[in-house]
């Protein structure tokens, strides 16, 4: 089942051995992550990465969410993270979240990773809708969603909670081709 590979990346579960690289990537990317990711802060540690990886493994085991690392094709160098989370089995949809480390942004990796994880969500998990939410002024994340082929459906008022207050969010959606349903 995993890893999921494409031309420029490998998507696989995090390993405890990835914790130093994860914390380093977070530190490298503070300027771009802290503005949008509630978990990101200037003092992020390797121990926090290890705790996150343990939660990711538990969620994967219980099939409640699928949080993975984005790596170079050899599976060694951490490029960022991607997930399918907030899964609603009653209505058969989930949410895609992603980030790419600062030194590798603007290379098409995030949109490529979204394509790979969407295929996984549709074919392996059987989901029929994947949503991408981005704060309205997060133009980089919105560009990724659009480049990955997601359709902007609306701007949802007070849809995300960030920095102690509600924020409006652009809601994008991906659905599988009709032949896949």
Describe the protein's architecture and organization:
The chain has 181 residues and is an alpha+beta fold. The chain is built from 5 helices and 8 strands; from the N terminus they run E-E-H-H-H-E-E-E-H-E-H-E-E. Strand 7 (151-162) and strand 8 form a beta hairpin. Helix 1 crosses helix 3. It is globular and about 40 Å long. It starts with a strand and ends in a 7-residue tail after the last strand.
Give the low-pLDDT segments: none
* Helix/strand order: EEHHHEEEHEHEE
Strand content: 25-35%
Largest sheet: 8 strands, mixed
* Alpha-carbon Rg, integer: 16 Å
Mean pLDDT rating: 94
Which percent range fits the helix content? 25-40%
Shape: globular
Report how far the terminal alpha carbons are from each other. Answer: 21 Å
Summary?
The chain is of the alpha+beta class. It has five helices and eight strands; from the N terminus they run ββαααβββαβαββ. The protein has helices spanning 19-28, 30-33, 46-62, 109-123, 139-147, and strands at residues 4-5, 10-12, 66-71, 78-88, 93-100, 129-135, 151-162, 165-174.
Draw up the topology in text:
Blueprint: E1 4-5, E2 10-12, H1 19-28, H2 30-33, H3 46-62, E3 66-71, E4 78-88, E5 93-100, H4 109-123, E6 129-135, H5 139-147, E7 151-162, E8 165-174
Helix pairs in contact: 1-3
């Amino acid at each position: 089942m995993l890893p999921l590979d494409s031309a420029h990346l490998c998507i696989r579960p995090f390993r405890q051995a990835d914790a130093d690289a994860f914390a380093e990537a977070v530190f490298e990317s503070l300027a771009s992550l802290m503005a949008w990711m509630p978990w990101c802060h200037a003092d992020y540690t390797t121990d926090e990465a290890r705790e996150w990886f343990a939660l990711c493994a538990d969620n994967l085991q219980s099939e409640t969410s699928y949080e993975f690392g984005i790596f170079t094709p050899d599976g060694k160098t951490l490029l960022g993270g991607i997930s399918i989370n907030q899964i609603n089995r009653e209505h058969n949809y989930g949410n895609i979240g992603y980030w790419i480390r600062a030194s590798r942004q603007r290379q098409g990796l995030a949109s490529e990773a979204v394509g790979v994880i969407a295929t996984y969500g549709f074919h392996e998990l059987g989901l029929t809708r994947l949503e991408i939410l981005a704060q309205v002024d997060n133009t980089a994340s919105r560009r990724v969603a659009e480049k990955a082929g997601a359709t902007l459906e609306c701007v949802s008022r007070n849809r995300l909670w960030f920095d102690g207050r509600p924020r409006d969010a652009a809601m994008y959606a991906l659905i599988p081709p009709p032949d896949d349903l």
